[in-house]
Amino acid sequence: MRVLAAMSGGVDSAVAAARAVEAGHDVTGIHLALSRNPASYRSGARGCCTIEDSNDARRAADVIGIPFYVWDMSERFHEDVVEDFMDEYAAGRTPNPCLRCNEKIKFAAVLDKALALGFDAVATGHYARLRTGADGLVEMHRALDHGKDQSYVLGVLDQRQLRHSLFPLGGSTKTDVRAEAAQRGLLVADKPDSHDICFVADGDNAGWLREKLGERAPNHEGAVVDDATGEELGRHEGTYAFTIGQRKGLRIGRPAADGKPRFVLDIEPVTGTVRVGPRERLAVHRLSGVRPRWCGTPPEVLDGPEVSVQLRAHGSELPARVRVAGAERDGVEVELLEPAYGIAPGQAVVVYDGTRVVGSATISATRGDR
List the disulfide bonds (predicted). Predict the structure, then answer.
């Protein structure tokens, strides 16, 4: 096959490209230039988006012996990922930009361009496994190394995208990948993993949002109030600096009467009100999702010992019952069999049947009732 290897400049994508070559594919490496002004994105060689990362990817391609190009996706990335990130926070929701990047950029814009150029598949360094099911559909499963599993942020992929994807690292551990990189002479073998949001240069999400949204957001200032009594406890400069479940930086002048910490329970962007209260008020037993994305045939109801959901990129699986809802089957209702805490609208709920990823949806509402 003709394979396009997306090379971020990190160790995972470099080894994935090398394995694609070793598997006999005709491989071309590309690096995505995602910033309209590279100096404005995170500095330092951390495995994504910077000039240093582009150079690291080029050197890795030279060692592997494959052609290498840089594709400018900066305008599309800014519109579909960065602007979406700002809009979601301004609306009081908590988005996942990496998941949105996979949906809109890496497995949509890049894949579409690759297919138009005659490539058969796109290979990435994500930790997930693909296999063909008994019904002939391509299934995505959790990676062998559950500590590195990235199926959560890939839960937005549909069947067409999965048929043209390769994840060469799904059956490996990170330790093995680093050792293999060193054996292959790849200089990125010991390069640190990237954990921060790539377009937030210093990792200060709240500060970045304050700078970008401070002047345009209608809720520039507001009150932090006790959810039980309605008492104003403090003031803030913008709801975009808060997320559901947040404990620190609440701008509260005095401790609660019971001495226990307070957490953000609700964000009202129209009035600028941030409501806080005890942790037990964060418990979520039911949630609704919109804009579902199914990896295969959409289910009607999922209910059984193997059904679970994941609500954060590095969160635990929770047993659940899942039902497709809405006249247009454009919604999802989830009953959690164990409570989750600090779950916010805007996050993704990814549905699993055992290790298989069924699909995902964007959380639109949460409820504490059983």
Answer: 101-198
Residues 49 and 185 occupy one common structural domain: yes
49 is catalytic: no
Nearest alpha-carbon partner for 191 in 125, 107, 97:
125
Catalytic residue among 48, 49, 98, 101: 101
Q: ∠ at Cα 98 (356, 105), nearest 5°?
A: 95
| Same domain, yes or no: 273 and 289 | no
Task: Report the CATH number that the domain containing residue 7 is assigned in CATH.
Answer: 3.40.50.620
Tell me: do 40 and 109 sit in the same domain.
yes
Distances (CA, A) of 278 to 59, 230, 316: 52, 14, 22
Length of the chain counted residue by residue: 370
How far is Cα of residue 19 from the mean position of the Cα atoms in its chain?
25
Q: Is 12 annotated as ligand-binding?
A: yes
Residue 211 domain flag: no
Coil, strand or helix at 38: helix
6 is in an annotated binding site: yes
Do 110 and 132 sit in the same domain of this protein?
Answer: yes
**Do 182 and 34 belong together in one domain?**
yes
- Point out the catalytic residue in the list 48, 98, 198, 295: 198
Do 50 and 88 share a domain, yes or no? yes
| Residues 309 and 337 reside in one and the same domain | yes
Expressed as residue numbers, the domain containing 339 is 282-367
Question: How do residues 223-282 score in pLDDT, each as one tens digit?
Answer: 999 998 899 999 988 888 888 999 988 878 777 777 789 999 999 988 889 999 999 999
What is the reported pTM? 0.90
Query: For the chain, how many structural domains are there in total?
Result: 3
Contact 236, 221 (CB under 8 A): yes
101 tagged catalytic: yes
Q: Comparing 20-29, 112-121, 144-153, 217-226, which segment has the lowest mean pLDDT?
A: 217-226
> Tens of pLDDT along 19-50?
999 999 999 999 999 876 655 454 444 445 67
* Contact (CB, 8 A) for 78 and 46: no
73 marked ligand binding residue:
no
Is 8 annotated in a binding site? The answer is yes
Same domain, 96 and 175: yes
pLDDT of the residue at 38: 54
